[in-house]
């Protein structure tokens, strides 16, 4: 199960032999371990939908363009 960290872990702590991810980073962990981390408030479940939403959030906004006015001064 993929999780996203919500809290900082003590220096030197390891997650499955690797340093813990920083706050906001994601990690893949066994389902039982992920459930425990989520239930304790250390992490939240991270889904494919979250990946898409994050990509959209980071994407630059398209420039806005004004419409040309017609002779009466109203936008077309």
Distance between the termini: 51 Å
Helix run count: 2
Q: Would you identify the regions where 5 or more consecutive residues have pLDDT less than 50?
A: none
What structural class should be given to the helix and strand makeup?
Answer: alpha+beta
- How many separate structural domains? 1
Largest sheet: 3 strands, antiparallel
Helix content: 25-40%
Spatial sequence of strands, sheet with the most strands? 4-1-5
What are the secondary-structure elements, in order, as H or E? EEEEHEH
Assembly type: single chain
Mean pLDDT: 80
Shape category: elongated
Radius of gyration: 22 Å
Count of DSSP strands: 5
Give the percentage of residues in beta strands.
Answer: 15-25%
Explain this structure to me?
The chain is of the alpha+beta class and about 80 residues long. The protein contains 2 helices and 5 strands. The chain has helices at about 30-40, 50-60, and strands spanning about 1-5, 15, 20, 25-30, 45. A hairpin with a 2-residue loop joins strand 2 and strand 3 (about 20). The relative contact order is 0.20.
Could you give a quick summary of the protein structure above?
This protein is 26% helix and 18% strand.
Secondary structure blueprint with pairings:
Blueprint (H helix, E strand, L loop, with lengths): L1 E4 L8 E2 L2 E2 L6 E3 L2 H9 L3 E3 L2 H11 L18
Antiparallel strand pairs: 1-4, 1-5, 2-3
């Amino acid at each position: 199960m993929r999780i996203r960290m919500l809290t900082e872990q003590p220096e030197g702590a390891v997650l499955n032999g690797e340093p813990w991810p920083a706050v906001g980073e994601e990690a893949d962990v066994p389902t039982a371990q992920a459930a425990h981390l989520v239930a304790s408030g250390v992490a939240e479940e991270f889904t494919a939908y979250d990946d898409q939403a994050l990509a959209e959030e980071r994407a630059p906004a398209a420039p806005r363009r004004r419409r040309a006015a017609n002779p009466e001064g109203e936008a077309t």
